[in-house]
Design goal:
The protein is mainly α. It has helices spanning about 5-25, 30-35, 40-45, 55-65, 70-95, 170-190, 195-210, 215-235, 240-260, 265-285, 285-300, 305-320, 325-340, 345-355, 365-370, 375-390, 395-410, 420-435, 435-445, 455-470, 475, 480-495. Helix 1 runs antiparallel to helix 5, helix 11 (about 285-300) packs parallel to helix 13 (about 325-340) and helix 20 runs antiparallel to helix 22 (about 480-495).
Length: about 500
């Protein structure tokens, strides 16, 4: 089989293997393309062997299909095969005569060429050759002699059937041409470092401004960053640039998961969270993976999958680096356990989160970028309040909600920020459970003026709980209770329209 045919058949075989695994997993090409962040046509061409994407693509395929890495291993084998074939081809080209025999070749001893005479000094005084000897010095009359052993193919130089020297100059010339072509090809598959730096800044800005953006604006900005990063990944093969871009795409996927949760788009939220986890694996970044698992836990307990929520949250805790990442993961775990009614586990997780707050971390997402990836003490207190409320422990729930309100009041941000609004809803719920309707009305009063496009799912869910609580028999005859119940009900119906989100 010709060299090129062997490589081509190997690519076809790998593509066929991908197609079989994809079909076995129940994915169409369109769905699978979204999961691995490639175009459908690219997936189709890859499966037929017409396109050979880089290693990162096969790593993502392995992650999505849970193959254990067999596709990336086969890619590595084909890459080695391709390089070996190219090198062999280059050596054959170097050994092939190109026009008139160079002058130096006339003075090489060639026993297989009748009528040729070697130069008298060709085999004299072995060992007198030095590395600095040039071809010009080896002409008749030179005082230098040939080396005892002449360079052969194993040295990277062209050689004849008997191992004799053929033409180091021609070998170097051909090697230079191959090297130049390779450098040109590598240079073409790169982008400006300044471009990636700007994109990193854009991604960081979206994360840090998250609390000051409406969900619709946050989605728009995040998609812009994500799409630019994906397009740049198609244009660079530099490992350092690829890792930076994968981290940017991971951040964007994580932000889109959070934004989907804010909009109540649960299937999209789970897809983006899974994609973020996959990108975190590709980039080898535990902070991304911990955030993604924590987001999956959040989605699971909001959608009633309480056992899955605990499992996701425990994985997030195991992955989370020290610092804010661990605080966040433990806070999510407390929420997950609260939906299982496990008050003791809630207490342990809340206490562990408070202890973890005392450790400084260096994780890129949670400790350096911060914003949506950060987790402030106010957020931690708000989450603890919700967890305690879920298991019916009103006293610690009230204390945590008050702490969250006090901490959030001293932080810059939009007046419609999520943390104080949700803390108010939790506090009012505790007050209603204690029979304090008028106090609850005062607590909730600032919420009713919130513009519809700021109303996120977390707050809507809390107000729905208040509506259910005030719909119970003991409140039905109280006019003020009915008024608050109506306000809570209409708050959700006035929710802004959801922006369209592409598949993850």
């Amino acid at each position: 089989m010709a060299d090129s045919e062997e490589v081509t058949d190997s690519w076809r075989g790998l593509g066929h293997q991908l197609a079989q695994l994809r079909k076995s997993a129940g994915h169409t090409q369109h769905v699978f393309a979204g999961l691995v962040q490639y175009g459908r046509s690219s997936v189709a061409n890859t499966e037929t062997g017409r396109q050979q994407p880089d290693r990162a693509f096969w790593v993502r395929c392995d992650a999505v299909l849970q193959t254990g890495g067999i596709l990336a291993q086969e890619y590595d084998r084909i890459s080695v095969l391709t390089r070996r074939k190219r090198r062999a081809s280059a050596l054959r080209t170097a050994a092939r005569p190109e026009g008139p025999t160079p002058l130096i070749d006339k003075y090489v001893h060639r026993p297989d060429m009748p009528g040729e005479k070697s130069h008298p000094q060709a085999h004299s005084a072995p060992g007198r050759w030095h590395p600095g000897t040039s071809a010009r010095h080896l002409l008749p009359g030179s005082s230098h002699a040939w080396p005892e052993r002449l360079p052969g193919p194993s040295d990277g130089f062209a050689g004849g059937p008997d191992g004799t020297y053929v033409g180091v100059e021609r070998s170097i010339r051909n090697a230079a041409r191959v090297t130049t072509e390779h450098a040109m090809d590598a240079g073409a598959w790169a982008v400006s470092d300044a471009t990636i730096e700007q994109l990193c800044d854009d991604a960081t800005r979206v994360a840090r401004d998250f609390a000051r953006l409406t969900p619709a604006v946050a989605v728009s900005e995040t998609l812009r960053v994500r799409n630019l990063a994906v397009s740049l990944l198609e244009r660079t093969r530099r490992p350092g640039q690829q890792r930076e871009l994968y981290l940017i795409v991971a951040q964007a996927a994580a932000l889109l998961a959070s934004e989907s949760v804010d909009l109540g788009l649960w299937p999209s939220a789970m897809e983006y969270a899974r994609a973020a986890y996959t990108y975190g694996e590709v980039a080898g970044h535990d902070g991304v993976r911990a955030y993604a698992r924590g987001m999956q836990a959040t989605i699971a307990y909001w959608t009633g999958q309480t056992a899955d929520a605990v499992e996701y949250a425990e994985t997030a805790v195991a992955l989370a680096p020290a610092g804010v990442a661990r605080v966040r993961a433990l806070a999510v775990l407390a929420r997950a356990w609260s939906h299982r009614g496990a008050a003791d586990n809630v207490r342990r997780a809340v206490s562990a989160a408070e202890e973890a707050r005392g450790t400084d971390g260096q994780d890129l997402l949670h400790d350096i970028i911060g914003g949506e990836f950060g987790y402030t003490p106010a957020q931690q207190a708000r989450s603890a309040s919700t967890a305690w409320l879920e298991v019916g422990h009103a006293e610690p729930a009230i204390a945590a909600a008050v702490t969250a309100l006090n901490l959030a009041g001293g932080q810059p941000g939009s007046e419609w920020s999520t943390v104080p609004a949700e803390a108010r809803a939790d506090l009012a719920t505790c007050q209603l459970l204690g029979g304090h309707l008028d106090t609850a009305r005062e607590t909730l009063a600032p919420l009713w003026a919130m513009p519809s496009d700021w109303r996120r799912t977390g707050l809507l869910g809390r107000l729905q709980r208040i509506h259910r609580l005030l719909s119970e028999p003991q409140w039905q005859a109280v006019s003020n209770a009915r008024q608050v119940a109506e306000l809570a009900s209409s708050f959700g119906t006035a929710h802004a329209g959801r922006p369209a989100l592409p598949p993850a």
